[in-house]
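WARN retry 2 of 3 for item q-0093 after timeout on previous attempt; input resubmitted unchanged.
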Amino acid sequence: MERHTGKLAILAATLVAAAIASVPHTISATQEINGSQHPATYTVNGTARITCIKATQSAAPKPGAARPACYLAGPGLGKQVKVNGSTETNGPGTVTLTCSGQGRLGCTVRIDD
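OK item q-0093 returned
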């Protein structure tokens, strides 16, 4: 019985660790109207799926101007991601979020790692 108890404890610890690792995280960044960035960072331990869930700007976009978006830098990243768009890291490291657009901006991503 004692041998089975030890195996059950190891199994339970593994399941708890897996559940914690699969909890999505959100980070948000801002940009002031003068262009000053306030980035956000998050460290991933391996590959992670990142989804831009919100990108807003204070004023209506000028005709022909690009809509605000999330800009992601990190392992395998260095790209703009539109709202509801996703990308993936290619390994562990620090992901940095900044906002892309004009004027006062806010952006948020969800990280599933």
